[in-house]
Amino acid sequence: MPSEAAGASILGVERLPSKRKRESLPMSTTLTWRSMGAGEPLLLLHGLGTTSEDFAVLGPRLARDYRVLTVDLPGHGRSPSLGGIPSVQAVADALEADLDELGLSEVHLLGSSLGGRLALELAGRNRASSVVAIAPSGMGMPQERTYQALLMSGARLALRALHPLIEPLSASRPGRAVLLGGLRARPSRASPSEARAVQAGFAESAGFWRMLWWSVVADVPTGLERIDCPVILTQGTRDLLAGGQTPRFLLVVPGSRFQPLFRAGHAPLSDTPDELVRLVHEATRRSRTYRAIKEA
User: Fold this and answer.
1) What is the tens place of the pLDDT at every residue in 4-57?
2) 23-295 CATH
3) Global pTM?
4) Virtual CA dihedral for 263, 243, 133, 206, nearest 10 degrees?
5) Where are the domains of the chain?
């Protein structure tokens, strides 16, 4: 498939450093989107407390084979907060409206943590061709939700206190280990851009507390039995945050399968990038077979 991104920035927003050109998408969308590469559309959804820069390294790799779309979730990065309650359903409504604005009825989805949960929500609305969900939230027991909320709250407070130091810390491997130690098993492998994502996320997100409550702690998934596309659930074996949530989705998502990511943390985008690329290729390949069978 072609692999070069089209054209210059539509918004005139400063390009983020990358070996592949990124294109900002129209201002008529509610959230801030970027695109790179060409081929079948693949939407990457980040988790709570970070931004689309979480995919700064993985995104260009996937753009060799797909039209990769990234988006800052509400209240994160350059996207405004939602006006009402920022539940999973409300955030999915905003994503769905923007997909309509972009003329995309279906996309492949790769989501991490809350992004994984949103990917499954969109799949339940028939907006997904395939899903790879990394440690999706939503299936925690009460004690697991409390534990997750405490860890996320601690990260928010710590990174707000470190705010003036995030930029210099992101420039060195030991500094990146400090910034990403709770999210990645091998945080020093992350790029400076991935480390800086916590600045516009945990440290600066305007709607962090409301999204933590409504989209993570209080979220109860419904309608996932309607999902009608290939779904791969995955989680790092060194994930300190999600507990045993991910395999529980096997009980409610038809035809899904679970793949552990060995020696990987909660947000393993730089821990096991080769394995994640492989899982995306597997899911998209299965979606083509699935579609052919349905159309036969």
Assistant:
1) 333 323 232 333 334 456 677 655 789 999 999 999 999 999 999 999 999 999
2) 3.40.50.1820
3) 0.91
4) -110
5) 23-295
